[in-house]
Amino acid sequence: MIIKKKLPELLAPAGNLACGITAFKFGADAVYAGLNKFNARERTENFSMIDLSRLINYARENNKKVYITLNTLIKEQELPKVMEILAELAFLNPDAIIVQDLGVLHLIKKYFPTLKIHASTQMGIHNSAGVRSVQSLGIERVILERQVTHDELTTISQNTDCELEVFVHGALCCSLSTTCLLSSWMGGWSGNRGKCKQACRRRFFSKNDGNGFFFSTHDLYSLENIPFLKELGVASLKIEGRLKQGDYVKNTVSAYRLMLDTEDCNAKVIKEAKAMLMKSLGRKWHHGFTSEENLKSVVKSDAQGVSGLLCGHIEKRVKGGFVIAASRRLHLGDKIRIQQKNGEDNTSITITKMSKTGSSTRTIARDEKGLIHCDKAVDLASKIYKIGESAPNFDKEIAQIAEIKSKINLEVEVYINQITVKTSNLANNLTWSKKIVLEQAISNPLNDSTISKAFNIVKNDKFKTGEVTSKINGEFFMHSKILKECRREFWEFVDDKVDILTLKQPYDIALMNFVKDYKKRGNRAINHQEKNTVSVLPNRKGFQKETIIAKPVFNYSKKTNEAIIPPFCQEDKLKTLETAIKIAYETGARRFRITSIYALDILKKYEDISIVASYPLPVCNSATCAELKNNKVIRAQGWIELEKEAFEDLIKKSDLPIEIYRYGRPVIFATRAKIQTEGTIADKKGNKFDVVNNKKTGLTYIFPNEILSMPSFENATNFYDYENAGPNEKERSSFNLDLELL
Q: Between the CA atoms of 411, 415, 419 and 424, what dihedral angle is there, to the nearest 10 degrees?
């Protein structure tokens, strides 16, 4: 017998309820959606709890799945709000929560253990050690870093039994996940908190290489790769695009559904799927980071990597709009982007009114000129890109979708003279009984199926029947009239005693337990003998002899106190890294600094070591510290993006000593893509950065031109980083310290 491999799940974006229903209608097995806060696409419409409830209800009735993105970094003062959201989500019970912050993972595991957890691509999991690390923390699925090649994906899948999810289509970030602080450095707009300003899409100027869009990637496209991913057994294929509308969702889902369902993906099928994708109006397609060869061409710096179909340019500004010289047809209802000539700012609008020669029109044809009515200021010579069309309309069907009804599980027991029904999943379970008179059955005795069907009929807008178990103490005949009467009286009894607050009570209790625990959480005294840690110390001048000297694990010596494990290690270099760690350990290393979660798996074999968590492993809140503390971590470096108040709150509430990155030049962007410049670059606003291509790591880094310099904090230890900085550099920045991190 031939056993067919299970097809990968097709996972689509849902920026709103209409997009979610569209995705399901055109073949998606699942969608991922975010709420108005704490998700990596906060710029889109996103979901209210009511619409999310309706989406999940629709999905369940149609054998589909819904995953919720709670995948941003969380500041200390935001933990109570996150807990409130988790309590609501636990009540709705989506198919999984997608997380980046280890603190959110910790809260789910401790207070809402029925929720399944997926690791966001924002966790930056890029090797099999990383998969095993988060799997040991309770993760059921890992959404891999987008810069994992197919060869690496093959090896990772062979070295783990964890579900793997990969992106197959949509916009690409040039930087490795989590490590991009470019937008944040330019003004506090954090990509790790859903506020990215897409600074990588800007034009930059270089003394050595002129100017260009040095970090602007093509869009990911994977039609030809679907047979490979099917054969490999990847659990889920993900389409990016929660900022997109229904037309994009329809076209991309249709194309990839066709490829998944077709056994022979020949040239004819691919051509048909491509025709569908052509309507999705993205950037130029590329296979992304899937091979060493593709790494060289994923960025095309000499052209503006803009999204959409070029349809003309603005020829003239007039009162109430602008005149376009069209190079392609535009239609009423199209969504367009007005892109400045320099590639910087842009404005998006939906065309609601157009005219030609003074008369209203529904279309402006190719090579025609027409007036697009618009109340926004535009620049002459700006280019017009079509980025959307009218979407399928399911408004009538959407209007009829109800919110989730909570399920009440029942235990029914029948005797010859009595029936008893108990609820089994409420905080305070209920018991109802009724005296009845039954006879021994001659034929058609009462059975479990009959009881289950009867009690599944509920005329109530608050709840419905969940699992029904029954115990029948004999073989009885029960007339359907009696059974219906029992069912009606039972649900009347329940309706009097159960409201929505009762149904939410278990989750509210979890919320109250968190509040109690949180009040007890607090700072402990630091060990002043370990006040300072220095990476690559140029000299000991100004530092006490107790200062901890840290060096990369590959350079560890007997004079070193702490070995630093790199934040990125591609799959085929894991063995080399493990050997370096073993040599350091045998040389005397008993303290390791981890900069990515994957290192936990590599270090688990060493029982007598201490671990320090450090940038770029993000630590923004005390819940993250609690999770790290459970994994041998003795100290955690606060996330360098934070503002002063957020640092102080973290220090106050953490159960681990908190370390502050006091001085250095941190990496604020790292990529495997080949970048066509090196040295100092600047944008048109004068922001300066240094680009370094590191041949040893195979990565290109962006460093800020200024030194990151922080003040000391009470009850925190200090970290001085001289790996990429001299000891007395004058150009300094405190990053977001005096701002509010958005």
A: -10
Residue 94 has pLDDT above 90, yes or no: yes
Examine residue 199 and state whether it is found in any structural domain, yes or no: no
Query: At 585, which CATH number?
Result: 3.20.20
> Are both 440 and 540 inside the same structural domain?
no
**One domain for residues 319 and 337:** yes
Which of 281, 286, 165 minimizes the C-alpha distance to 223?
286
Q: pLDDT of 163-216, one tens digit each?
A: 999 999 999 999 999 999 999 999 889 999 999 988 999 999 998 889 999 999
pLDDT of 2 over the 70 cut: no
Examine the fold and report which residue of 397, 429, 464 is the final residue of a domain before the chain moves on: 397
Give the Cα separation of 681 and 668 in Å (integer): 14
DSSP letters of 433-446?
EEE---EE-SSS--
Rounded distance between C-alpha atoms, residue 595 and residue 530, angstroms? 19
Q: Are 669 and 573 in the same domain?
A: yes
Would residue 223 count as lying in a domain? yes
* CATH code where residue 99 lies: 3.20.20.380
Confidence of residue 500 (pLDDT cuts 50, 70, 90): confident
Which one, of 353, 389, 357, 383, lies nearest residue 370 by Cα? 357
Residues 588 and 729 both lie in one domain: yes
341 and 281 within one domain: no
Last residue of a domain, one of 397, 418, 437: 397
Please give the radius of gyration of the chain, using alpha carbons only, rounded to the nearest integer.
Answer: 29
Residues whose CB is less than 8 angstroms from the CB of residue 619 and which lie 6 or more positions away in sequence, other chains included: 613, 625, 628, 636, 637, 638, 639, 650, 658
- For 111-137, write each residue's pLDDT tens digit: 999 999 999 999 999 999 999 999 999
pLDDT in tens, 46-84: 899 999 999 999 999 999 999 999 999 999 999 999 999
Confidence of residue 541 (pLDDT cuts 50, 70, 90): low
- In this structure, the answer to whether residues 222 and 86 fall within a common structural domain is yes
14 assigned to some structural domain: yes
Quick: pLDDT tens for 328-340.
999 998 999 998 8
Please indicate, yes or no, if residue 180 is contained in any of the structural domains: no
Tell me which residue range forms the domain holding 30: 9-174+217-292
First to last CA, the chain: 57
**HSE-CB of 468 using CA atoms within 13 angstroms:** 20
Is it the case that residue 315 has pLDDT exceeding 80?
A: yes
d(CA 718, CA 732): 17
Q: What residues contact residue 359 under an 8 Å CB cut-off, 6+ apart?
A: none
In total, how many domains does the chain have? 4
Cα-Cα-Cα-Cα dihedral sign, residues 287, 290, 295, 301: positive
- Say how many residues make up the chain: 742
Q: Are 622 and 655 in contact (CB under 8 A)?
A: yes
Regarding whether 419 and 285 lie in a shared domain, the answer is: no
Instruction: Kindly tell me the sign of the dihedral angle through the C-alpha atoms of 17, 23, 24, 29.
Output: negative
Tokens 């000499």 correspond to 302
Helices (H) then strands (E): counts for the chain: 19, 42
User: Sorting pLDDT into bands at 50, 70 and 90, what band is 406?
Assistant: confident
pLDDT in tens, 706-734: 999 999 999 999 999 999 999 889 999 99
Find out whether 442 and 479 touch, Cβ atoms under 8 Å: no
d(CA 412, CA 469): 6
Beta bridge partners of 164: 142
Residue 236 and residue 102 share a domain = yes
Regarding beta strands 716-721 and 532-535, do their DSSP bridges make them parallel or antiparallel, or are they unpaired? parallel
The one-letter code for the residue type at 252 is T
Tokens 């005219």 correspond to what residue? 355
